[in-house]
Amino acid sequence: MTAVANGAGEWRSWRAAAREALYGPRGFYRRPEGPAGHFRTSVHVSALFARAVARLLCRVDAALGRPARLDFVDMAAGRGELVTGVLAALPADVAARTRAYAVEIAARPEGLDHRIEWLPEPPRPVTGLLFANEWLDNVPVEVAQTDAAGVARRVLVRDDGTERLGEPVTGAEAEWLRRWWPQAAGTGWPEEGRRPDEEHRSEQGRRVRQGLRAEHGLRAEHGLRAEEGLRAEEGLRAEEGLRAEEGLRAEEGLRAEIGLPRDAAWASAVATLESGLAVAVDYAHTRENRPPFGTLTGFREGRETAPVPDGSCDITAHVALDACAAACPLPGARLLSQREALPVLGVTGARPPLALASTDPAGYVRALAGAGEAAELTAPGGLGDFVWLLQPVGIPDVLAP
Ligand SMILES: C[S@@+](CC[C@H](N)C(=O)[O-])C[C@H]1O[C@@H](n2cnc3c(N)ncnc32)[C@H](O)[C@@H]1O
């Protein structure tokens, strides 16, 4: 990707910009407050989540025949909250055999349980459970947007979040779009047999400059992906004749996040497993329900915000977990919602019986609070819609009901 110097800053691809904004020396994830200072994951919502993961580790342990050394890898561990909770929730005989690892780019927090090994990469080989909660959505990806002629182009961004379109998406990235996000794949006109003539080309250049700078303020408020006014005014949806002639298919302004780096990241994490289970939990979509305008967004101090790659906010996009699964040629992978997964691991939102209130008032209040937290972890439209990708290696499906 060629960056183009510009008076107001450099145009970079979203992947390069987000990588520096999140993980560079002054990156968002290097900040002392950690992710919990800006948003809540399931881990922060309730200790019930870590207890459920501890139960999952026990099931993996049983499936492995209770090995002398059982690994638990908290992949993308934040400040180690999940691994700390899992160790606390394990039965003593399992805890005694467990090697606990936190894999994280950020530095080890002070005061962390000495039993937890803090690593920049997963250990290998792993025998046990590798659990990645909200990791893959923070693996930076390229963003593509279709131009007026329906061609998928790389979106370039500056540090202040302004965008313009760059070159057409080609090669492995175009292939990924065609396979996994076909609505936004466009045609990639530099391909053999599809090159528009010079007149069409300069026409496309004009369209890109005039019409396709997305307006982040608008997006944050209204969920808009590009300025509708401009598009409509210019009539920049390719005329039918042009489309038919060139075989162009996609609408203008469709966006997609190209998941290749996430597929690779997931495949390399799973490759560390000798036997056991790898689990990725994230907000996700599959080929059948990709969002037409992508999902790139930001978070800062508890609020969703425009994704500005200056290190001040999180930059995240939902994960094509079906593509991640396919990147690991192993049998037995499956996707299920957190709403389905957690009850199997003992987390239910059932209210305690009212009779408990008179026999054990404190216990009743505790149980009520637990039910509330369980409901939040499994709520439709919220954390319950998160998707779990289960990737067993050499063991059966331990989450089968
Ligand atoms: C949204 S936070 C999730 C933290 C924690 N898993 C939780 O659920 O609360 C994402 C974390 O992934 C970490 N991360 C991203 N890429 C990573 C990588 N390649 N290796 C290790 N950690 C990574 C970030 O530093 C950040 O702490």
What do you see in this structure?
A 7-stranded mixed beta sheet has the order 4-3-2-5-10-17-16, sandwiched between helices. Strands 1, 6, 7, 8 and 9 form a 5-stranded antiparallel beta sheet that branches. Strands 13-12-14 form a 3-stranded antiparallel beta sheet. It folds into 2 domains: 12-27 and 142-258, no CATH class; 31-138 and 260-283 and 318-393, Rossmann fold (3-Layer(aba) Sandwich), CATH 3.40.50.12710. The model is unreliable at 1-7 and 188-248 (pLDDT under 50). The termini are far apart. It has 401 residues and is of the alpha/beta class. Helices cover 33% and strands 20% of the residues. The protein is globular and about 70 Å long. The chain is built from 15 helices and 17 strands. α3 (47-63) crosses α4.
Summary, kept brief:
By secondary structure, this protein is of the alpha/beta class. It contains 15 helices and 17 strands.
Terminal Cα span: 47 Å
Unreliable stretches covering 5 or more consecutive residues: 1-7, 188-248
How large is the count of helical segments?
15
Give helix % range. Answer: 25-40%
| Alpha-beta classification | alpha/beta
Average residue pLDDT: 84
Bound small molecules, which ones? Answer: S-adenosylmethionine
